[in-house]
Amino acid sequence: MKPIQMVDTKTQYLKIKNKVDAAILEVLDSAAYINGKAVVEFTNNLNNYVGSKHTIPCANGTDALQIAMMALGLQPGDEVITPSFTYIATTEVVALLKLTPVFAEVNKDTFCIEPASIKALITPKTKAIVPVHLYGHAAPMEEIMSIAKEHNLFVIEDNAQAIGCDYTFSDGTKKKTGSIGHIGCTSFYPSKNLGAYGDGGAIFTNDDTLAAAMKKIANHGQSVRYYHDVVGCNSRLDSIQAAILNIKIAHLDEYNVARQNAASHYNKAFANNPKIKTPFVAAYSNHVYHQYTLQLTGVDRDGLITHLTEKKIPAMIYYPVPGHKQKMFDSFGIGNVDLPVTDELTTKVISLPIHTELDEEQLNYITSEVLNYLNN
Questions:
Q1: Which of 10, 76, 142, 231 sits in a 20 to 30 Å window from 305, CA-based?
Q2: In the chain, which segments carry CATH 3.90.1150.10?
């Protein structure tokens, strides 16, 4: 049996090696390392895939969130509602821009932000909502957009973990996550469903004015060289990464199906065990399984991780310390935030290996070792 990895980017690369290597060499031959043809081609292909009107490539997913908030003209002290149960980048940029993070509760089944919690947190200072499509499952965007419209708020989708996920509205129409809010942001970190071989990110919007503003901010605040209209930053997707991503985006649906098949194998194996709750999929969303995350009941989670480690099976806890309990936010005076679902989830979740290259032998071994521990 092949060694089991949490994410196997190397085997995935080997299957497209010839195409990727040729694309990289083409960039090297062109010497257009920044904003080259590959960037233009990938941006167009990504834009068509997501279904947004505008796509702005950038250096990473964290930059994407920062540029989005800068483009909205948010001012120090403005409040931004976002889940606490997410990777720190989502709220880190809020603090970086001297905005005020307001932590919302998440749904115990989907792990995504709870609309009722959003409503309860809105104040006159609230300016934006940042829902996170966590682990590959969509947040309830139809409800969120309705709340935002009622209160005149912006919505920035954090789509770093769910590219390719389909959202189905109550009227039956479908959109890709990242194309629903005023702005969508994503990451091409290597472990993502659409991962580069380095850093990368992108921003989506259907608003012409916001698109122009974000493109300018990402380029030192300039639209004409050496004429800087606003304070910006330097955030570019380099041509080599774009060339790699341009090969991989043609395989993205295939990659997501492979993840879904692996998740289905896990689901069937764990279906009858009362100590395991497998990932829930809401009627409005499919799931692209950036992570395959279980909830454990009556299980020594650390003991399970030790057992799996001894059996050479990796496992991870995403995320053991939620945002509202991170020291970096102490100065915001939010230590008394009451988020019981979030706090409980941090003690119950565990993520098993999920990627495009898992085979049946590996999946059978992983599931059998999990069940062996739980049944002893």
A1: 10
A2: 252-375
Segment 317-371, tens digit of pLDDT: 999 999 999 999 988 877 678 999 999 999 999 999 999 999 999 999 999 999 9
Token pair, residue 4, equals: 């089991």
Q: Are strands 183-187 and 201-205 parallel, antiparallel or unpaired?
A: antiparallel
Class of domain 9-250 as given by CATH: alpha beta
Residue 251 CA from chain centroid, whole number: 18
**Residue 334 structure tokens:** 């939010």
| Residue 275: other Cβ atoms inside 10 A | 17
> Residue 78 contacts by C-beta under 8 Å, 6 or more apart in sequence?
99, 100, 125, 126, 127, 128
Looking at residue 195, its amino acid is: G
Q: Dihedral sign, CA of 200, 26, 253, 367?
A: negative
Tens of pLDDT along 141-198? 999 999 999 999 999 999 999 999 999 999 999 999 999 999 999 999 999 999 999 9
Backbone angles phi, psi at 184, to 5 degrees: -120, 145
33 preceded by a cis bond (ω within 30 of 0):
no
For domain 252-375, the CATH class is alpha beta
Burial 157-166 (b: 16+ CB within 10 A, else e): bbbbbbbbbb
Q: How many other C-beta atoms lie within 10 A of the C-beta of residue 223?
A: 13
Above 80 in pLDDT, residue 200? yes
Instruction: Report d(CA 107, CA 111) in Å as an integer.
Output: 5
Residues in Cβ contact with 303 at an 8 Å cutoff, skipping those fewer than 6 apart: 373
CA distance 353 to 197: 20
Contact between 340 and 346 (Cβ < 8 Å):
no
CA dist., res. 193 & res. 207, Å (int): 26
For the chain, residues classed under CATH 3.40.640.10 are 9-250
What DSSP designation does 111 have?
-
Listed residue (92, 285, 268) closest to 176, CA to CA: 285
Give the end-to-end CA distance of the chain in Å, rounded to a whole number.
25
d(C-alpha 350, C-alpha 107), whole Å: 17
* pLDDT tens column, 37-78: 999 999 999 999 999 999 999 999 999 999 999 999 999 999
Structure tokens at 237: 């997707």
